[in-house]
Design a protein that fits this description.
Blueprint (H helix, E strand, L loop, with lengths): L1 H24 L4 H23 L13 H19 L1 H8 L3 H6 L8 H8 L6 H26 L4 H24 L25 H33 L1
Helix pairs in contact: 1-2, 1-9, 3-4, 3-9, 6-7, 7-8, 8-9
Length: 237
């Protein structure tokens, strides 16, 4: 199907650009960067293999939330690494904020949710919330990133955008889970529900892109917190 073909090309391109940009910007040794690239590549390959094997759309997935686990696992892994290692924290906090915010421009691809809904491959409030929410966050990302680079963006505006972006992802995930036909936690019955998200290429969204964007939101929150602490330190002294 043409929509799947276009979606596969575009989603893969966005994932590659995002991951390469973030890894390239990390202030780590070349060997560490190569190791991280290998780990990320293995993760993406695993998710593609699981989707190809039909794991995300299997009968067992109606009881075990494989897609949900795929979203949470990278976020938890990065969070634990940052918590346990000062070097990891330093590398993440040193990432340029304009880059972190600007990468979210890829979320304008939320238009694919709307196209899938129009073709009756997604149903209910899930595609509308996920689609329009992502489009709004993506459209705001580039001008905000430019303002941050110029030094004209206020911390309040950055935090407001970051909260909006994170909540959009959480809401989309929640609605997607509640709209999964046959799932033990299903609370919304509306046509195809979120069925398309369990199949390639669309499974790349919850298994690769959503964890990436959640991690980036977390880094931005941490950088804003660090900046507040730095500003408050002279006053406390």
């Amino acid at each position: 199907m043409l929509l799947d073909f276009l979606g596969g090309m575009v989603l893969t391109a966005v994932a590659v650009v995002n991951l390469n940009a973030l890894l390239s910007a990390l202030a780590v040794a070349r060997r560490t960067r190569l190791l991280l690239a290998a780990v990320v590549g293995l993760w993406v390959g695993l998710q593609i293999s699981l989707a190809t094997a039909g794991v995300f759309a299997s009968q067992l997935s109606l009881t075990v939330p494989f897609l949900g686990l795929a979203v949470i696992a990278p976020v938890v892994a990065v969070g634990l690494a940052a918590w346990r290692s000062a070097a990891v924290r330093a590398a993440l906090l040193a990432l340029p904020m304009p880059l972190l915010v600007g990468l979210h421009a890829g979320r304008i691809l939320g238009v694919f949710f709307l196209l899938l809904a129009a073709s009756d491959r997604l149903g209910g409030p899930f595609p509308q919330a996920a689609g329009w929410g992502d489009i709004a966050v993506g459209v705001l990302a580039l001008p905000l990133a430019a303002a941050i680079a110029r030094g004209t963006a206020s911390p309040a505006s950055i935090e407001a955008w970051n909260v909006l972006g994170a909540l959009d992802l959480v809401l989309a995930l929640t609605l997607g889970i509640l709209s999964t036909n046959g799932f033990v936690l299903q609370a919304i019955s509306a046509g195809a529900g979120s069925a398309a998200m369990a199949q390639l290429p669309w499974s790349l969204i919850p298994t690769v892109l959503v964890p990436f964007y959640l991690i980036v939101h977390g880094i931005v929150f941490a950088q804003l917190r660090q900046a507040r602490q730095a500003n408050n330190a002279p006053q406390t002294a």
